[in-house]
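Quick one, probably user error.
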């Protein structure tokens, strides 16, 4: 049963190709931290209220192969199984065992992050023949690995200020 849920979670972390219009652009800010322009899902409602930025520190990256894919969800709908309906998507290169990025212009609200280390850039979570992930994954709040994918409530956080910092520890099984 554990493998069924883990397999479903891993399948859900498949991201589209980096050339896809679903991905935002990468820019380096003044402090050397990458600022990512997230590509927002066109089906999401545009919010004109207060906005903030989320600093994401991705830790424990196993190697520099591939890229880090980031999915930001604003509801439990699709989390983390369907990145194609996430609020916003982006990707970034890897240059060490940790990676700091900032996503800006995010409306105040409740969110959850899902991260995939796509080592071979084939846009899917690679697995063994029994469904065990070969690539790393992580979520905001670093929920404990269980016999199922994390729930939105476990990974959820509130953006209610101009800046919010989140650390995500990559998990490799």
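Nope, works fine. Designed sequence:
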């Amino acid at each position: 049963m554990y493998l069924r849920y883990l397999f479903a979670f891993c399948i859900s972390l498949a991201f589209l190709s980096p050339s896809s219009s679903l991905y935002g652009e990468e820019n380096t800010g003044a402090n050397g931290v990458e600022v990512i322009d997230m590509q927002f899902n066109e089906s999401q409602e545009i919010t004109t209220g207060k906005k903030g930025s989320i600093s994401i520190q991705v830790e424990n990256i196993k190697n520099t192969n591939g890229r880090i894919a980031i999915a930001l969800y604003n509801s439990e709908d699709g989390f983390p199984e369907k990145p194609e309906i996430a609020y916003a998507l982006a990707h970034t290169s890897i240059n060490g065992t940790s990676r700091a990025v900032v996503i800006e212009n995010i409306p105040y609200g409740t969110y959850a992050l899902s991260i995939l280390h796509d080592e071979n850039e084939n846009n899917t979570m690679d697995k063994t023949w029994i469904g065990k992930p070969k690539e790393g994954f992580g979520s905001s709040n670093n929920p404990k690995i269980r016999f199922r994918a994390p729930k939105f409530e476990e990974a959820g956080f509130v953006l209610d200020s101009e800046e919010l910092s989140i650390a995500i520890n990559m998990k490799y099984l």
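Residues 2-12 form the longest helix (11 residues).
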